[in-house]
Specification:
The protein has about 250 residues and is an alpha/beta fold. It has 6 helices and 14 strands. The strands form 4 sheets. It has an 8-stranded mixed sheet, sandwiched between helices. Strands 2-3 form a two-stranded antiparallel sheet. The longest helix has 11 residues.
């Protein structure tokens, strides 16, 4: 399976910690965060990755080149910032394989069993399947409405008091055909979660949710970036790939 990793953001909230690197290259236990993503998803069956890059793209390209472990790597480069949705539309043109493709946020690590997610996606003939995690009620994440048969009923569900809620974990399976008929084109600037997904949802594309209890970390804010060191401990080899990277 092919995966697109959205790694083109500016990472302004981490800029004071990693001024010379794009956020997905933030060092965790001596390794760039992106290495943890690649290691995990290659073991899940991903064989080719397209990095959607923009800000400080050269840092990612020079580190990884075109091959990592057993995965083939390619790059979709934004000349100007296009947002997550715009970056995705630009990267889709570089896909080679038929069938659904995986989309990952370059600043989020979420353990999801890809085989199970693919099975649910195919059983329901979904256009988009989101990996969801359950969290206590909070103001940081928007709840996802999940109905019978894993069908997503709302991308912005109200959180009732108490209990836990399914929220978007930043891992998606998307059918290429889901993009048929949309008004945006490669090169347009838009948000994946705030514009593209809501437009597809309103166009009656079937969205399904796959709930995973795997570990989750979003390094987009400094406190979670520092917490990532402990969470990813089991994914760190005995010797770091780059001994100079020891900020977290």
């Amino acid at each position: 399976m092919e995966a697109i990793i959205l790694a083109g953001g500016l990472g302004t909230r981490l800029r004071h910690l990693i001024p010379d690197l794009p956020k997905p290259m933030a060092p965790i236990r001596g390794r760039p965060f992106l290495e943890y993503l690649l290691d995990y998803w290659i073991t899940q069956g991903v064989t080719r990755v397209i990095f959607s890059v923009g800000y400080k793209a050269q840092a990612i390209q020079s580190h990884f080149g075109h091959c990592y472990n057993i995965g083939d790597l390619d790059y979709s480069v934004e000349e100007v910032p296009l947002g997550t949705g715009g970056g995705l539309l630009l990267a889709i043109d570089r896909l080679r394989q038929p069938g659904p493709f995986l989309v990952l946020n370059g600043d989020t690590f979420f353990e999801v069993e890809l085989a199970g997610m693919v099975q649910l996606h195919r059983e329901h003939s979904a256009a988009v399947t989101m990996a969801l995690l359950e969290v206590p009620r909070n103001g940081r994440y928007q709840a996802i409405g999940l109905g019978a048969g894993a069908t997503i009923t709302s991308l912005a569900s109200r959180q009732a008091p108490g209990g836990t809620y399914a929220v978007n974990g930043g891992v998606y399976l998307i059918e290429k055909s889901a993009m048929d008929g949309i008004s945006w084109r490669p090169g347009d600037k838009l948000s994946l979660e705030e514009e593209l997904f809501p437009a597809l949802f309103e166009a009656n594309r079937l969205f399904c949710g796959y709930v995973s209890s795997g570990r989750f970390i979003d390094i987009g804010v400094p406190e979670d970036y520092h917490a990532a060191s402990a969470l990813l401990r089991s994914h760190t080899p005995d010797e770091p790939t780059d001994p100079s990277l020891h900020l977290a």
